[in-house]
């Protein structure tokens, strides 16, 4: 596994292209999503005179955690990669650097594209019923009988308002 690629052979050859497949280590640990292991990168690297452009895809398996019921599942994710690397970047917001010995590091690009593509509020199913806020039982699999009249009545909240 590696995140660096030697591209010195393509730097000065405008239009010259090479295909690469490599496994890029990736480690993402968020509340709703985590990725451990590697991203499978399938890219073409093309010379653009003073640098290279890297285009292709990165594929990973994401472990999501349902935002409502906390159940976990694995889901494949593939993102597009389209990144310019220059010996002397013109705009460091969008371009990355080819170092003095002709290497690029694709790790940050792959990591950022994948994190941007993650589902922000993952749900195991669109109508997941979540956990009972009182007893914590999973309402998808073990319907909770309720906790007394107050919580089972749809008017409980209103009654409470009138009480105060
Ligand atoms: Zn769920
Ligand atoms: Zn309950």
Fold and architecture overview:
A hairpin with a 3-residue loop joins strand 2 and strand 3. The mean pLDDT is 89. 17% of the residues lie in helices and 41% in strands. The chain starts with a strand and ends with a helix. It has a 5-stranded mixed beta sheet with strand order 2-3-4-5-6. A two-stranded antiparallel ribbon has the order 1-7. The relative contact order is 0.17. It has 164 residues and is an alpha+beta fold. The protein has 2 domains: 114 residues, no CATH class; 36 residues, no CATH class. The chain is built from 4 helices and 7 strands, in the order βαββββββααα. It binds zinc ion (ZN) (2 copies). The site of one zinc ion has 7 residues, from loops. One zinc ion binds next to loops.
Q: What's a concise summary of this model?
A:
With 164 residues, this protein is of the alpha+beta class.
The end-to-end distance, rounded to whole angstroms, is 64 Å
Strand order of the largest sheet: 2-3-4-5-6
Mean pLDDT reading: 89
What value does the Rg take, in angstroms? Answer: 24 Å
Q: How many distinct helices?
A: 4
Q: Assign the structural class, choosing from mainly alpha, mainly beta, alpha/beta, alpha+beta, or little secondary structure.
A: alpha+beta
What are the main properties of this structure?
elongated; two-stranded antiparallel ribbon; 164 residues; 2 domains; alpha+beta; 4 helices; binds zinc ion
């Amino acid at each position: 596994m590696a995140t660096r690629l030697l591209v010195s052979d393509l730097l000065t050859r405008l239009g010259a292209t090479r295909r690469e497949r490599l496994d890029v280590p990736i480690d993402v640990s968020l509340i709703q999503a985590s990725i451990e292991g590697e991203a499978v990168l399938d890219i073409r690297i093309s010379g653009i005179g003073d640098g290279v452009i890297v285009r292709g895809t990165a594929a990973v398996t994401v472990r999501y955690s349902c935002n409502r019921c906390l159940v976990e599942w694995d889901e494949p994710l593939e993102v597009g990669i389209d990144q310019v690397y220059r010996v002397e970047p013109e705009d460091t917001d969008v371009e990355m650097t080819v170092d003095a010995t002709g290497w690029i590091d694709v790790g940050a690009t792959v990591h950022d594209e994948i994190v941007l593509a993650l589902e922000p509020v993952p749900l195991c199913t669109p109508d997941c019923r979540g956990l009972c806020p009182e007893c914590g039982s999973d309402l998808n699999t073990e319907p909770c009988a309720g906790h007394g009249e107050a919580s089972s009545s749809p008017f409980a909240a209103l009654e409470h308002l009138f009480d105060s």
